[in-house]
Design a protein that fits this description.
2 domains, OB fold (Dihydrolipoamide Acetyltransferase, E2P), binds zinc ion, globular
């Protein structure tokens, strides 16, 4: 399938899910008008955004400091400046898992590096799958939305509509479907176990409207 024909999931969009280079700068000096509007109450975000990065290392001692690789392949540091310095999050930190940071901004640290500083614990979440798995799951959901005919995710049976009623849905992700228990078990062993987790996680993102800002999202 040519690259342009592949379904592009929500998480591929670099406006609502920017890489580090696309994040606004922390508005101490200058408000980034790509992300904020001026209204009667002051500046308010004009849209929602969320930074996604895959954990490559965890380096903090006093507080959790994560090294994460963004969508562009750039590795940046995420500092947990929350009340507990990231202690609650620590058991979930694992290389290869993805960190999602709502309203992440480029922050200039004292050592002159520019990284991401997280102050509100409800803005950060660790998702137990790789960034690529998460992006792929978001693509898969586009196909589902388009109402393409469902077929068994293992043997491929059931391309025609009349067969659909006989397919059983995966009870976890409610997305993958199979012609029977044997196919479901086989698909689980063949890799749906990992895909399923990503499909479940990505539905938190796809259930929301990222275009218009009414109130802050939180995890
Ligand atoms: Zn089957
Ligand atoms: Zn599933």
């Amino acid at each position: 399938m040519p690259e342009s024909k592949k379904p592009q999931g929500l998480l591929r969009n670099s406006f609502n899910f920017p890489a580090f280079s696309g994040l606004p700068s922390e508005p101490e000096d200058e408000i980034d008008l790509k992300y904020y509007n001026l209204n009667l109450c002051g500046f308010e975000p004009s849209q929602h955004w969320c930074f996604l990065g895959e954990i490559v290392d965890s380096i903090g001692l006093v507080r959790v400091l994560l090294r994460v690789k963004d969508k562009d392949g750039r590795v940046v540091t995420v500092g947990l400046y929350t009340d507990d310095r990231g202690k609650v999050l620590a058991p979930q930190i694992k290389k290869g898992h993805t960190v999602a940071i709502l309203y992440g901004e480029q922050h200039g640290f004292l050592d002159m590096t520019v990284n991401i500083r997280v102050e509100d614990a409800s803005n950060i979440k660790i998702i137990p799958c790789s960034l690529e798995q998460l992006l792929k799951a978001s693509d898969d959901l586009v196909v589902l939305r388009k109402g393409q005919p469902r077929h068994c995710g293992s043997c491929g049976n059931g391309e025609n509509a009349s067969y659909n009623t006989h397919l059983r849905l995966c009870s976890r992700c409610r997305y993958a479907s199979y012609c029977g228990e044997d196919c479901q078990k086989k698909a689980w062993m063949d890799g749906h176990k990992a895909d399923c987790k990503a499909l479940v996680e990505v539905q938190w993102f796809t259930a929301k409207n990222w275009e218009t800002f009414h109130d802050w999202f939180s995890f």
